[in-house]
Amino acid sequence: MIRRLQAYEHGEPADVLAVAELPDDPPPGPGQVTLAVRAVGLNFLDVMLCRGTYPVRPEPPMTPGVEVAGRVVAAGPGAERLSDVEVLACPALPHGALGDTVTLDATLATPLPAGFDPVVAAALPVTYQTAWWALERAGVGAGQTVLVHAGAGGVGIAATQLAVARGARVICTAGGPEKLAVCRDNGAFLAVDYRAEDFVAAVRDTTGTVDVVLDPVGGDVFTRSLSCLDFEGRIVAIGAAGGPPPPVDPMALTAANVTLVGLSWGSAYPWRRAERVREVYAELFALCAAGAVRPPVGRTPTLDEAPAALADLAARRTTGKIVVRLGRETP
User: Fold this and answer.
1) How far apart are the C-alpha atoms of 183 and 151, rounded to whole Å?
2) In the beta sheet, which residues pair with residue 147?
3) Most exposed among 59, 147, 172, 200, judged by the fewest C-beta atoms under 10 Å?
4) d(C-alpha 46, C-alpha 192), whole Å
5) 133 and 276 in contact (C-beta within 8 Å)?
6) Burial level of 223, CB count in 10 A (0-12/13-18/19+)?
7) CATH architecture group of domain 130-262
8) What is the pTM of this model?
């Protein structure tokens, strides 16, 4: 028997998720591998999956968890090269990783460098790949200024670290002194408390405008951010943790000479840009080794504690990354 977290209906994570005892997985099929799960990163998209509001909407029963580090304990035909290898992967929904084992397509698995901490590895895929691609698609380079919303969250911290590594200056927004300190500790030269002051006014007083905005919040934050952009500025819509943004008039973007970029990394890039994703992982592993990337794992709950951890994530009571630690001994 194996233990696996499952949602049997849509709703808030603490209400709909429970650990189930299930039969062992069948052997992996051709081109598949089964992992003994060591660590699973949590994301706001897991909350959206539980609520049924994520763009990819698997029907219950569903297991969340789209970032996994683990050891390959079974390999199907064509995937034998990964036998007994420690890997990092993003499994395909609805078969998420929050359980003792997970089976996935071998093309989604990236071998880890020897001795790489699985908890650190599980903090990389969604947040750091999302941040990397957001910066890449926005053309962020040395000397530019980037406004990062939710700067003390997982994507926000990743974006700040990676933007600084590219030679950019970063302004972050966050709520409260503790989260502002996190933003500054990760490289932001200015951290704005959105609860106490207007971030638009703070940007205008400090730099006048910014070249790029990275927005995982949505709502009116997205609309207000448009007024922060410089000529030929770019805004990357990453998510809507604060609610869907109001409709945008394309002619308003035209008049302002600004670019809107939509980015949903996990729903497309691992499949449509698989080789490039592996190259980005190699870059992230190297940045970790150099100390430029420092995944801020704040909590490592158990599988049984994961629903409460996701509830805290939904309520914005978290700082940095939550990684569920598992460790069932599997032969």
Assistant:
1) 6
2) 171, 213
3) 59
4) 27
5) no
6) middle
7) 3-Layer(aba) Sandwich (3.40)
8) 0.88
